[in-house]
Amino acid sequence: MRIISGFLKGRAITPPKNFQAHPTTDFAKEGLFNILENTLDLETTVVLDLFSGSGNIAFECISRGCTSVHCVEMNPIHTRFIDATAKALGISSYIRVVRNNVFDFLKICTQKFHFVFADPPYDLPGLEELPIKILQADILEENGLLVVEHPGQYTFDHIPGFEKTKKYGQVHFSFFAVSKTLPTFALPNK
Q1: Within a 10 A sphere around the Cβ of 84, how many other Cβ atoms?
Q2: CA distance 79 to 44
Q3: What is the mean pLDDT of residues 115-142?
Q4: How far apart are CA 111 and CA 90, in angstroms?
Q5: Which of 10, 71, 128, 184 is most buried by its number of CB atoms within 10 A?
Q6: d(CA 78, CA 62)
Q7: Distances in Å between the alpha carbon of 175 and those of 56, 110, 115, 135?
């Protein structure tokens, strides 16, 4: 893994061999950031990175000028790696690592973000409801953007605010826009 663009361009991110995350590929990350740079003003963007894993997306965000990134990750090995890498890159003052379960964090978070990125484990139980839970948490600024990385068997076009899904190899990103006109909605009954 490497940082693709910005002031940290070319810097390697090398998790330990026993790392239990599926980092977003450089190919997919480049495609994602091409869209983000044409959608958001990255220099004023406050980011929430859910299921941060290696911190790959967070480091790319800071390198490209985002104001700050909050990384939420439950695995202590991963949180230590994100902290250590941010320090080694000289960006620890821009990265806040929160060791917590994402769903618990969503219940208590009071801050709002311009961009929320979620890269859950692909076998996460309830992954199909994740975008709804994030949108219901009311953590996105008006005109904010939510992007969920997921495997191809999931579709989210039935969720209010859904805009599109982009595919890069085996990686799928679903985009959700938040505006004042977004209707309120409830989780579907099972």
Answers
A1: 12
A2: 25
A3: 94
A4: 25
A5: 71
A6: 18
A7: 19, 22, 11, 12
Structure-token pair, residue 33: 């950031």
What is the dihedral angle through the alpha carbons of 52, 55, 57, 60, rounded to the nearest 10 degrees?
160
User: What CATH number belongs to 43-165?
Assistant: 3.40.50.150
Of 14, 60, 52, 8, nearest to 36 by C-alpha is: 60
Q: Assign 138 to helix, strand or coil.
A: coil
Q: What is the pLDDT of residues 15-63, one digit of tens each?
A: 888 788 778 889 999 999 999 999 999 999 999 999 999 999 999 999 9
CB 29, CB 23: distance < 8 Å: no
Q: Per-residue DSSP letters for 140-159?
A: EEEEEEEEEEE-TT---TTS
Domain ranges of the chain: 43-165
Residue 186: pLDDT band by 50, 70, 90 thresholds? low
Token pair for residue 140? 């996105």
The single residue listed with the structure tokens 């990686």 is: 171
Give the span between the Cα atoms of 172 and 54, in whole angstroms: 18
Query: Which amino acid appears at position 157 of this protein?
Result: D
